[in-house]
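Journal club prep, notes for RB
We'll compare a predicted complex against what the paper describes. Inputs for the zinc ion case:
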Amino acid sequence: MSKRTIFTPKVMRMLALVAVMGASEPLMAQTQNQTQKEMQKTATDQNVLLAEFQGPYGGVPAFDQMELDKLKPALEKGMELHLQEIEKIANNPEEPTFENTIEEMERAGKPLQRAFVYYGIWSSNVSTPEFRAIQAEMSPKISAYSSKISQNEKLFDRIKTVFENSRDNPLPADQQRVVDLIYTNFAMEGAELDADAKKRYAEINMELSKLYTKFSSNVLADEENYVVFLEEDQIGGLPNSLVRAAAKAAEDRGQKGKYAITNTRSSMDPFLTYSDERELREKVWRNYYSRGDNQDEYDNNDIIAEILKLRQERVALMGYDNYAEWRLQDRMAKTPEAAMDLMMAVWPAALARVEEEVADMQAIADREGAGITIEPWDYRYYAEKVRKEKYDLDSDEVKQYLQLDNLTDALFYTAREVFGFEFEPVPEGSVPVFHEDVKVWEVSNKDGEHIGLWYLDPFARQGKRSGAWATTYRSHTTFDGKKTVLSSNNSNFVKAAPGEPVLISWDDAKTFFHEFGHALHFLAADVKYPTLNSGVRDYTEFQSQLLERWLSTDEVIERFLVHQETGESMPQELVEKIKNAATFNQGFATTEFLGSALMDMKYHTTDPEGIDPREFEKETLKELGMPDQIVMRHRSPHFGHVFSSEGYATAYYGYLWADVLTSDAAEAFSESPGGFYDKDVAAKLVQFLFAPRNAMDPAEAYRKFRGRDATIDALMRDRGFPVPQ
Ligand SMILES: [Zn+2]
């Protein structure tokens, strides 16, 4: 997935709103009077961060003219201009119509959107302490601006009128979809409520945001307060890299000469995998899975109960039975029942696989004379022994076949064969970039028509956030004249010595394909209105997950996965090893994931009155038959996805939902005559799953692609589970 966490949740909501509001060419706005147009022009002329993109390819961002002291004035002016446009729409004396309300909203806010392009670059690619100070200052201002739009009653009245009129006289399909999405977005945020209810709604949100902050800081406190310090004779089994990191962590904490295992996943997970010290494994395990649950001042159980009550009260104001019902209405799953049904269909096979995995591990423990029964703190340790016996894969050997330049060519090959896209480097110096490492390609379709640019910022450096992500600087729309796409991919590969190829791991190569999938999703867009470019949480990751599958196709392996020295293609047996390794430990992975996802849904479909989260978690997992050897991937008192914001509340199931679609869609290719390069299936993929973005209901789009709904069978095969009859 694209792990973008550059903004606070509140700002993320605001940005989503800006995306929903959309924007396009301000000069085309016929109802704007001359003065407003002139004001906007003057403001954008004075600040390059607000100005229209100039130069080739329909205009490109002025990344060579970014000056940080222009950012704050640009954001402030951009918000002011957008709010003026919104006021004008809201106070239009004419009867509300699609054109004078929805289309004008789609058109508004364009200078601000451009300022946010630069803001995103500073935030993710070239951050500095000076930028972060501006970010901290602007964040509450941005959220206040966002509230001014979502709480604008006159604006909502007009949206509602257009929406209600469209019930009697339906609009063309794409316009109808825009109206439905915008109306739902406002209504879900309480726009329909009367004055008293609105007041309570705002109070609840205020209380919730305090509880979310408290929840996270409690988890953080327990992560910082519980560190296990090891002596020299307690590091048996640990790989050198972990020992070095632990020594450094101890030194940082004033315990030079010792080894610190901190209370975070990146420390806990490898320690439990490799440490020979069973008692210490138990200690580290208990610390980690007790975060927020130590019955002290940092305990989160009461906070969870409070959060659940407030969420329930808030959705009840809007007439919903429970939080999950409210949340899922605009997701692909649509109802909590659909999400639960999916999870419960996979659950029994995951449990059965856990039994097999535990039996394999117990056999090794018995053979070694360990004299133990497998407990949760033994799982990773003995699973690693099973892995070595059954699936051993030398990651260094694999890397020799994964050269960054070849993989980039493999992306282009896939884009050509499946999407009909051609990638050509732009002439040197013709498109401004924000760092010398960034390269730009022109993308055209099979008719030779220009459709956009693709920027690649491949290497790690100071000031760049970790991980990999995709983004756009401009999205495809046609309602005010055709706009071409400016897409980008960003990674953190480590540069090689001069003259040597950059070699990356199999996982990183998969991620490279994944993020390129997001870029192709942007580039393939064929929608009229900006709002139709928006994402759907349990759906939009699926397209990029699917793209990962082309990495292991024979065509890519033969042409592009060649040994850095010998130039020979990756041998078939190594490919097989990689594929087999993908089913390793799936019982554990699926069960710990589903434990969390099922609890998430149970919490939000149960009456929260009098709930005791500690008891509720225990009882619910018992009813589900959670195995003794596994805990939830995120136990309730530290389940930040769900309780430190609303980001993934009743949305954690979405990872599995997207996996089901991915596996099922991949089989549409593998079963076809042309396999992953079948022209007919590829054409349907582009037409129904990529080009419409959010212009079509996701379930309907999928049905058009596949001829039926997705089933879990392919996922079960991918995970090595038996397919239910
Ligand atoms: Zn993604």
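Talking point for the session: The first strand starts at residue 228 and ends at 230.
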